Amino acid sequence: MKLLTPLTWPLVHFALLGLLLFIGARWLHPSERAEQAVDTRIVISESRVAALVRQYEATSGIPAGEEVRTELVQRFAEEEMLRREARRWGLTENNQAIDLRLRQNMAFVSDEEHSDEELERQARALGLDSSDAVIRNMLVHNMRLLLSTKGEQEPTEAEVEAYFERERSRFARPARITGWHVFFSKDLRQSAVMEAARAAKAKLDTEPLEPETATTLGDPSPSGNQFKGQLARQLASRFGQELAKTAERLPEQQWSDPIETPFGVHLILVEERSPAKTPPLAEIRTRVAAACKSSQRRERLATAMQELRARYEVVVE
Prior knowledge:
By secondary structure, this protein is an alpha+beta fold. Helices cover 58% and strands 12% of the residues. A four-stranded antiparallel sheet has the order 3-2-5-4.
């Protein structure tokens, strides 16, 4: 199940969040925060779970069942693992984006002028490098990138070839359709539009005409009467799903039965349908190598996350 990502709040919301964090964080003891940064026990309160569920339901408009609730908890726990690992690896230090965020937060709540270094020091002393929502998301992203690229090397030729064979269908070029349509306008013909289309179909069945001539049996089409090298999805966007599906299965050089669309009624003829095909590896090697590299990163990250889940204890109470 794919869950929706968190909402992107406006900058002013982040500034207000920084103020709230400033008020709450000043009561925390710095040494306790340092211990939490390396703690491998993650405790998630029921109130936190309820907040995650509320956010999901407000964002998706769908009630969260037990399966969704479990996945929300798992995702929150995994992101917390990544944040703690990021702090352990020192990713909050000498990070220009994080330093800028810390300065912005402190400048917003401070009544005095301070140097950038002093603003950063005060923000870290308050634990904003651990509790600020924007920074927490930065750390998750950076840690995922670090884990997925750790020890990375360019894929070998053998790896690229093996990946291409496994994922050949991903690189297939879809079928393209060339043909004609005779259009009968609903606006012009009103209730007689289907009758006109059926009469034209009967004429074409008994008196074959060249496609361009056949189009004169109908009305002028705003987008033209011929379609060349179109993908099925392009035809669907232009004429609707029903016409596109008919074009995919209609025998070549045969006029279809009348097809209703939002614009009127159509008869279509497919002149040529080029089949889907996968180009040779040599032709798309750069694209395949990039996809192979991305796949290896996902595998590397999945392995790293499995190791983290084994190291961390997650408790909901």
